[in-house]
Amino acid sequence: MRKACLIVMSLLLPLLIWTGWTGESSAAAVKGKIVLDNQELTLPSGAAPENVNGSVMIPIRVVSESLGYQVKWDQKVHKVTISQDFKTIQLTVGSKLADADGVTLNLNAAPKQTGGTVLVPIRFVSEQFGLSVGWDNGEKTVYLSANPIAMPSAAPASQAPQPSASQAASATPSPSATPSPSATPASSSPQASPTPTPSAGIPGTAAVQVKGAAFEANQLMIAVNGSVQPAVTSLDNPNRIVVELPSSMIAPDLAGGLASGTLNTTGYPLISGISYSTVAGNPSSVRFEISTTERLAYQLTVDAGTGLITVSLGTGTSGGSTGNGRPVVVLDAGHGGTQPGTTSAAGRKEKDFNLAVIQRVGALLQNDGRVDVVYTRTQDVTLSLQDRVNIAEAAGADVFVSVHANAMPTSAKNWNQVNGSETYYSRSESLPLARVMHKHLVAGTGLKDNGIRTKSLHVTRETSMPAVLLEAGYLSNVSEAAKLYSTDFQDSLAREIAAGILEYLGL
């Protein structure tokens, strides 16, 4: 049974404005196709993708079962339950609230029942199942992929496919939270796509067209059809981040080609609005302005291979309680004292593994000198979950990272064979951090990738800053437990956790 790789590729998340749909209140059937990993899915009669109030809806049963998930439908309460391994998702027809492993999530459109299937927003599918999403407007085809190499570009099918996830994720972040307008980000693709030739003799014609834009999970994503180097400026009074795309114009695909417009930022309290407009000139340029309620750090990446520009927004750069301008990172070694956590077959305690890794991470970050490190514990002491939250809040932390090792109960099937690494978050604003940290977690452990998961955990739910809990591996698995306590393993994991924190903060 093929399982979805639960890594959300943030550089390819829903840019479904590429479709050119207007987002009117009525639902419109796309009459298109759904292709999963280069295989067209068979859709039930009358269950084509639809556009509902600007949200693309797809039949959940077809996609879920093709990924190896179990799908159950409760006709009495109109609820669909999707499960695989330890992940369970519940959606109710007509409700914009979904449940993912005990965490309540808001949907941008309520699921609807059409014939014998339930349609759900593609944004929710991509985030919860870890799928890459693409759209071919010419063919009216939704592309989904658990394998980024198989993902076609959003351009016509005759063009080359998009680069792999490892290429897309390797973009060099801007060196400072507030670089000058002339700062030029590194491209994540080894070769830039050729810039289309401007139309000769037409004043103001730009070389590059802005094909789509969306704001998802604290990320502004801009799709263009060529190579462009954005200039980004962070401004005060009022707080805003300005993204300028030189030699560009707005394509008809984006809101009918209107010279200006706004993006939906509902559910993001730190974002007061995002607008875009055409700046007259010869050639013209396109400007995006992100208005924020406080000064935010950001990270800019440009993928020349796919024509995707991403501005990932971090947290405030006030430096927390230290007042020196450096971000504050709280490192939490799970358990401790009278709370040993789980225990391996060899009698090794989880609390010792957690502390060893956290101390290594802290030492690396302190030697780097660009962040201030606060530990919840540096010794074998007992702390409540709320104690850990209080420490992070008192420090004015910008990031909270908790390290743990996992275990399966002996009553579970194949309990001693379950293995791998996973990352947990509870609040939607923590998802960008979870994506970055999970990429580094898997690189640091070298173990099976169990993906990013939502769960209502106290330390990730009650903290006000972006927070994640990293489960490095399973102590209930004898082979994996032996690796977790090796010095080389802990050093590798610590290096990657430190690198992930710095990447997320844009340092």
From TrEMBL:
It comes from the Bacteria. GO terms for molecular function: N-acetylmuramoyl-L-alanine amidase activity. Pfam families: Amidase_3, Cu_amine_oxidN1. Residues 153-204 are annotated as: Disordered. Residues 389-502 form the MurNAc-LAA domain. One of its GO terms (biological process) is peptidoglycan catabolic process. GO terms for cellular component: outer membrane-bounded periplasmic space. Keywords: Hydrolase. CDD domains: MurNAc-LAA. Residues 153-200 have a biased composition (Low complexity). PANTHER family: N-ACETYLMURAMOYL-L-ALANINE AMIDASE, N-ACETYLMURAMOYL-L-ALANINE AMIDASE AMIC. This is MurNAc-LAA domain-containing protein. It comes from Paenibacillus stellifer.
